[in-house]
């Protein structure tokens, strides 16, 4: 993994598939290092140990030579130095002094917080698709119920 494409303050996103597809996020702080929110040994199930850690870019990406790694440049209206300062200020502790929570306090929340807004587009997208799916299922059930009621009404009127 080439360090040359990353600049201090950029976000680093790695696509992973364990146990389901997701992206792991961190902040490149320079000198081949990344700050990220993770449980010990990248164990996403170890929520009680999920703290902000400093690792090498190679450790962050992992051993998969085919890993999809994306660099999200630091926005032009945000100071790279401030992004790095924020990332380092959280090192060794819980992010926002709260335990890890997939929906409100995850690695993407941490990384994007360093860019100015603690949010997770992965969570936003999952909630959106879940809502769409629930609406589709609800609509299908309602339609099925209406059609069934209509058939029953016609059957009753026949006799």
Descriptive report:
This protein has 159 residues and is of the alpha+beta class. It has two domains: 11-117, endopeptidase domain like (from Nostoc punctiforme) (endopeptidase fold (from Nostoc punctiforme)), CATH 3.90.1720; 120-159. It has four helices and five strands, in the order ββββαβααα. Strands 4-3-2-1-5 form a five-stranded antiparallel sheet. Helix 2 packs across helix 3 (107-114). It is elongated, with a radius of gyration of 22 Å. The chain starts with 10 loop residues before the first strand and ends with a helix. The mean pLDDT is 81.
- The strand count comes to 5
The helix tally amounts to 4
CATH superfamily of the largest domain: endopeptidase domain like (from Nostoc punctiforme)
Content of β-strand: 15-25%
Tally of individual domains: 2
User: Strand arrangement, largest sheet?
Assistant: 4-3-2-1-5
Helix share of residues?
25-40%
- What's the architecture of the largest domain, going by CATH? Alpha-Beta Complex
The run of helices and strands is EEEEHEHHH
Spatial extent as radius of gyration: 22 Å
CATH topology name of the largest domain, in short, is endopeptidase fold (from Nostoc punctiforme)
List the helices and strands and how they pair.
Blueprint: E1 11-17, E2 21-30, E3 33-38, E4 51-56, H1 57-61, E5 69-72, H2 80-89, H3 107-114, H4 121-158
Antiparallel strand pairs: 1-2, 1-5, 2-3, 3-4
In short:
The protein is an alpha+beta fold and 159 residues long.
